[in-house]
């Protein structure tokens, strides 16, 4: 993984010192809250419903074990003993004191971490496919390009005060596992007819109150022009993006209002003038970044471990977990392992300090000391020997982290909702926990097949409710919670925006409504292989509405 | 019966606080039930104006008037948001409601 050089270390240390001074000036009254707020936000500090919240960047979701231990230590020493992994592959602490945040930042800097680009109207932390480098369908590892984008975007003077926040995701797989279509810019590594690898560039995706699927602005961008093309898009957005209305300030609105053809024309014109300038990447530049993400020292192993076959046969519980949580790997004898943070006991994405420490130890033992965070709020070990899977599973069982629900209904994305968030209009976590309890029977869960369910506690859609096969949106009606149901969303290659079924449901009725929807699915599917989304697309929403509303 | 209190967040800690006025002295406390509450809207605005002094004294952030319900001497927020602010998250925290501070690492090492 990327290692800081002396410039990175100096930059982060100076940032910590700068924020320490800003906090001191806020506490002694030299800065008012209005003056301080944009400064704290630039350092990932929000003031939420019960306390401050600190968001720590995990660039493209990649963590070293020593970094995870530091996150555990911060949870233990400065917070309430846990952290919350977000859909942006970051971690959030819900209870830090403002006067201790500078110390937290100093501790993060010790392990090459920070909170830069986790808030504010700048280019945010770039996200990536969590299977980067190991996926069997991968064209090329996206992580070197994520790091290039990170270095280009951090403190970029021209793009430090954009009309609104700006999110970039990169994927190198044939299947989109990074929700590219819902980002301001989505970059998909593709191969052209000549066999060259470059990027399909998508622009103008997003969720929130105006969900939109990104449009392709360029079918094929040679890799050496990645940064110059991004800069051209950002420059057009910075010039034309609406600063008069926060609800219309994202680039998706610009693309919608002007049309992709006009935006393409403007971007290409800007790019033509700058494409061969200082931002043009040389092969040796790219090679240098690739070196940071060189494969770990894999052993030469048989494609199928014989001991594993015996364990699968003799241990049904292990076999069930293996069938769900273990993901094929491009290197023979290895596998990737999903570590579900959807236990039904803790909020989706929550993990305790002790669990973090234990996971770090397991990563050292079984996965070359690295952990990944995916955008569905789970963790992943990317490089586990097949022969170690049984031992790893046993260790995860002991940690209550072996729930085999990867990609199933109870693998719920949930925002913190009104239990924590000052913007939320309804709670999300209790609904997620109720659903997880209702569908805890694994036979029933597996019978429902692959299915995504996302719950947001307000229209800002931090939990991507429009992109879930089933989405739930909590709203406020006269001071009380109401839950709207959306069906038909997807964040993958076949991205689609879920449609609201009709009037919302009371808190005590929303789980039953989901059950009704799933009953229709089970009755109308043509076989177990037909997924919920396929049935919805085949039948439309009418049968579901009839069941829900009579 | 609908009443009103003044609430905000403590600057240093970020935690929720309610205004209590006693013998002309202002205090910011953590418990809604012990907050000073008034029925009259104008009285609430007067309290809020007094609270601004504590903004300027760097004690409190973003104070506002919150509607509450008082029934049989029990006090609670009228909206779900205010009820959650008063009582805390409606779900158990993963590690319990603890803050171990610097001792936490020592405890872990000892364990």
From TrEMBL, chain A:
<keyword id="KW-0349">Heme</keyword>
<feature type="domain" description="Nitrite/sulphite reductase 4Fe-4S">
    <location>
        <begin position="119"/>
        <end position="272"/>
    </location>
</feature>
<dbReference type="GO" id="GO:0050311">
    <property type="term" value="F:sulfite reductase (ferredoxin) activity"/>
</dbReference>
<dbReference type="InterPro" id="IPR005117">
    <property type="entry name" value="NiRdtase/SiRdtase_haem-b_fer"/>
</dbReference>
<feature type="domain" description="Nitrite/Sulfite reductase ferredoxin-like">
    <location>
        <begin position="345"/>
        <end position="397"/>
    </location>
</feature>
<protein>
    <submittedName>
        <fullName>Sulfite reductase [ferredoxin]</fullName>
        <ecNumber>1.8.7.1</ecNumber>
    </submittedName>
</protein>
<dbReference type="Pfam" id="PF03460">
    <property type="entry name" value="NIR_SIR_ferr"/>
</dbReference>
<keyword id="KW-0411">Iron-sulfur</keyword>
<keyword id="KW-0408">Iron</keyword>
<dbReference type="InterPro" id="IPR006067">
    <property type="entry name" value="NO2/SO3_Rdtase_4Fe4S_dom"/>
</dbReference>
<feature type="domain" description="Nitrite/sulphite reductase 4Fe-4S">
    <location>
        <begin position="409"/>
        <end position="546"/>
    </location>
</feature>
<keyword id="KW-0560">Oxidoreductase</keyword>
<dbReference type="GO" id="GO:0051539">
    <property type="term" value="F:4 iron, 4 sulfur cluster binding"/>
</dbReference>
<keyword id="KW-0479">Metal-binding</keyword>
<keyword id="KW-0004">4Fe-4S</keyword>
<feature type="domain" description="Nitrite/Sulfite reductase ferredoxin-like">
    <location>
        <begin position="52"/>
        <end position="111"/>
    </location>
</feature>
<dbReference type="GO" id="GO:0020037">
    <property type="term" value="F:heme binding"/>
</dbReference>
<dbReference type="InterPro" id="IPR036136">
    <property type="entry name" value="Nit/Sulf_reduc_fer-like_dom_sf"/>
</dbReference>
<dbReference type="Pfam" id="PF01077">
    <property type="entry name" value="NIR_SIR"/>
</dbReference>
<dbReference type="InterPro" id="IPR051329">
    <property type="entry name" value="NIR_SIR_4Fe-4S"/>
</dbReference>
<dbReference type="GO" id="GO:0046872">
    <property type="term" value="F:metal ion binding"/>
</dbReference>
<dbReference type="InterPro" id="IPR045854">
    <property type="entry name" value="NO2/SO3_Rdtase_4Fe4S_sf"/>
</dbReference>
From TrEMBL, chain B:
<dbReference type="Pfam" id="PF11011">
    <property type="entry name" value="DUF2849"/>
</dbReference>
<dbReference type="InterPro" id="IPR021270">
    <property type="entry name" value="DUF2849"/>
</dbReference>
<feature type="compositionally biased region" description="Basic and acidic residues">
    <location>
        <begin position="96"/>
        <end position="111"/>
    </location>
</feature>
<feature type="region of interest" description="Disordered">
    <location>
        <begin position="86"/>
        <end position="111"/>
    </location>
</feature>
<protein>
    <recommendedName>
        <fullName>DUF2849 domain-containing protein</fullName>
    </recommendedName>
</protein>
